[in-house]
Amino acid sequence: MRITVTVNGEQHTRDVEPRLLLVHFLRDELGLTGTHWGCDTSNCGVCAVWLDGTPVKSCTVLAVMADGHEVRTVEGLAHGAELDPVQQGFVACHGLQCGFCTPGMMMTARWLLDHNADPSEEDIRKAISGQVCRCTGYENIVRSIRWAAEHGGGARTADAATESEPGREEVRA
Fold it and tell me: What are the tens digits of pLDDT across the range 5-26?
């Protein structure tokens, strides 16, 4: 099937098999290896990206489902050479650790801060509850997201949706 997907603001047209997962499309077809591939069952959340502004686990979305839609990956967080405050927070507060869960955590954190510029620790923990980190015990990740909120990280995208209660949605499949 021929699909056209806008990824991080750039349109890509490819012929793909109908069974190709979005995570493999991003990594193998487009070379965007920042999106990690983990469990393939929607349990770990390392593959979280945005589909039309909503976090999804790309291991449970077919690439053909993204046809005509917009995808944002961790590579799309930075603004030119300037790191997003979420990225800066993960560096400043050692939220990176091994780095395997980091892209998914960052995408979820960015979405949370776009919808809740000053989340509580409970809000942050709930937002990242659909993701697994085996290194940090989540403390450094929570600190990283708080750091981003305190350093201008809230509501960076002009089109952040507000139809749901801020900080109350998990990454969906």
Answer: 999 999 999 999 999 999 999 9
